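Problem 12. The chain below contains 148 residues. Write out its predicted structure in token notation.
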Amino acid sequence: MNVNIFYQTDVPKHLRRTGIIKKACLAALKPCAKENAEVNIIFVDEKEILRVNKTYLNHHYVTDVISFNHPRPPFDIGAPWAFGDVYVCYGAARKNAPLFKHTYLQEMMMYAVHGCLHLTGMDDSTPPQRAEMDQKAEKIIARTLSPR
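Solution.
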């Protein structure tokens, strides 16, 4: 499994912790780690997440994260296939981080990891499912950020 990180918005350089974000996403994707696949984490602004939300989900509001799973190719192409894309709204992370007592980096990671958990098949459509996903994401982030 390979994780690619893209910054399509003005995320400050000190928050572009690509290695740490990638490590956390790989931990979330562990159930699918043996796949010869790629996941893209794309940090965008409010305008772009709104466009993606309207275009692909017919939702007319800004959200914090959107995940898209891609179907497995019907045959082995030899190269990694696009397992999924996760769009993370940096503006939502900045706005919500103080509410959850997170740093901006922790909130950005929360959305990226949450999106990756969706790619592995986790769902958050009920409060217990949401609590389970949040707990798992928090645990992954804490492990990733803890000094060894």
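Discussion. Helices lie at 18-28, 46-57, 90-96, 104-119, 127-145. Students who got a different answer should revisit the alignment rule from Section 12.3.
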